[in-house]
Write a structure and sequence with these properties.
Oligomer: single chain
Order of helices and strands: HHEEHEEEEHHHHEEEEE
Distance between the termini: 37 Å
Number of helices: 7
Radius of gyration: 20 Å
Structural class: alpha+beta
Strand content: 15-25%
Amino acid sequence: MRQFRSRHARLTPDEWPEGEPLLSLAEADLPAGRHAFHKEELMAFIEQDTRDTAPAAPVPPAAAPVRGRFARRAVLLPVAACSLALAAAAVLTLGGSGGGETDTGPALTAPLGTGTSEGVPQLLQRISLASAKAPRITVRPGQYVYIESKVGTTYEKTVGDKTTLASHGIHRRQVWNSTDGSQGWLIDPAVSPPGGEKLDRINEKGERQPAYLNAPTYDYLATLPTEPDALLAKIYKETEGMGNSPEQQAFTTIGDLLRESLPPAALNTALYKAAAKIPGVVQVKDAVDAVGRHGVAVARMDETSGARTEWIFDAKTYVYLGERTIQVRPDGGESGLLQPGTVIHTEAVTLRQAVDELKELPSSGA
């Protein structure tokens, strides 16, 4: 993926006043653990847009690539035709062609909140305490973890020699995974065919890939240490060399585990305590998820890409709501098209539950 070439000369982006005028920017650079997924999606978007605009020509047949997509998303580049909740709240500035959930529209933008390091340990302590007291979801052997969310992505679209920003509208995403990760199903209109697609752990060589931090299973999560220092040390060790910095990759890895998996109670609490030990973590007092819910965010900016990833929590109950990645630095990327305030990825987790069958819907999520 691309890296940002310029940086703000004086203040760090988290020190900018919230009302400061927005300048220019570009595609967010993603941590290494997410690169393969996003490259695949982005190339698919580019290929589709090129086919839509170019004259028809014979194309030699090619072998279909092996798809070993795990049931975890990562931050692509976000959203377009917004939900009524977002439009009514005037949270996101959107436009587009209307119609289907994933119709192409202009880049998604949002107010750029100010990040501060003050009070971060106390905030994460409150979040971890709330997590420890939260009701637990029981998952029995043979069941599937079902996670439903609303997501949106902005991406760079290239046709010929012209690159523009486009986005896919906020839409429903559904993931089922067996506890051992051997069976899964994904329904996401932006990235999967109609009706969804099978998820497996088969790599390009046809081999089954074991679970690891950046591609966990429910069973694997139960083996992770629940002492915060030991957990963070393991994260640093196993993600060494990934991402743009060890600290940013550790923050990204924890965020992935919070978003589209179901950590055991003790691990969930330990993840928050481990995050408090990562340098550069800030809080943003007002952040908004993909369905317009306001909350307080625990966030960290990638110094290379200039994009800030925010974990959003209810400001009163500290329940996890979702995640957002928003650009804060101008003049980033090769194209220079992204601007501060461009939302690279947005999502809201709306349901986590255990079900007995693959593709079964919980009664509360139907």
